[in-house]
Design a protein that fits this description.
Layout: E1 6-10, H1 15-26, E2 30-35, H2 38-48, E3 53-55, H3 61-72, E4 80-83, H4 99-127, E5 130-135, H5 148-168, E6 173-180, E7 183-184, H6 186-191, H7 195-203, E8 211-212, H8 213-224, E9 235-238
């Protein structure tokens, strides 16, 4: 048991998750993560301390439960849960998508949210407080051709945030979703494999650039603050204005 607030992040050892981990640690939280990348986990523990991270495939419910129990048991509390794990999934016409690729994307981008949140909720209910954030996407608000499983998962992440906000509100547990557009992370680097692709992606946004992980981290701190205490079941759009030029 600890008096220090605890933040738990899935896939927190790199990219957006790591930027948010640093911001939450600076704000006074003990930060913990479950991540599939063993090398990144080692670097995370060097920065945040031994026992702060466990290697875990978030698409596997049994692994998530075992990792959660070993990681969280010493603290017996989670004040902030950031469901951040995700993969890009196949970029193909729907008829060409293999069932295994569909299932892998849904397991990682959607089912992992359920696997982890169901374990955290009893701890939050016992303290009658908490903040849960589901990572969605601007693709969770409008169609995106050739990205069927990713879009399906990101729409569902928003639906879960709104449903859980209603369900958990009586325990003073707030639940919101983040709807990001392209953000400068290792995943974006893989998707935007050339400078030409990067410039084309940036040009589609009214701000004519790609977002940063640090900008997302600042928004997470806002959602954690007292300034957002009346905000639950909402979608915070961090998308450079791209949703303003898309049919919603």
């Amino acid at each position: 048991m600890t008096d220090q607030p605890v933040a738990l992040i899935s896939a927190g050892a790199s990219g957006i998750g790591l930027a948010c981990a640093r911001a939450l640690a600076e704000a006074g939280h003990r930060v913990l993560t479950l991540d599939i990348d063993a090398e990144a986990i080692a670097q995370f523990q060097n920065e945040f301390g031994e026992g702060s991270a466990v290697v875990c495939d978030m698409s596997d419910a049994a692994q998530v439960e075992a990792a959660f129990n070993s990681l969280v048991d010493p603290y017996q509390r989670v004040d902030v849960l950031f469901n951040n794990a995700g993969i890009a999934g196949p970029q193909q016409p729907v008829e060409d998508i293999e069932v295994a690729a569909w299932q892998s994307t849904i397991d990682t981008d959607l089912n992992s949210i359920f696997y982890l949140t169901r374990l955290v909720i009893p701890l939050m209910k016992s303290r009658r407080s908490g903040l849960i954030l589901n990572m969605s996407s601007s693709a969770g608000r409008y169609g995106c051709p050739m990205r069927s499983p990713y879009v399906a998962a990101k729409w569902a992440a928003i639906g879960l945030a709104q449903t859980w906000a209603m369900e958990l509100g009586p325990w003073n547990i707030r639940v919101n979703a983040l709807a990001l557009s392209l953000t400068d992370t290792p995943l974006a680097e893989r998707l935007l494999s050339s400078e030409e692709k990067r410039e084309a992606a940036a040009s589609r946004h009214p701000l004519k650039r790609i977002g940063s992980a640090e900008e997302t981290a600042k928004s997470v701190l806002y959602l954690l603050s007292k300034d957002s205490s009346w905000m639950t079941g909402q979608i915070l759009k961090l998308d450079g204005g791209i949703s303003s030029v898309k049919p919603l």
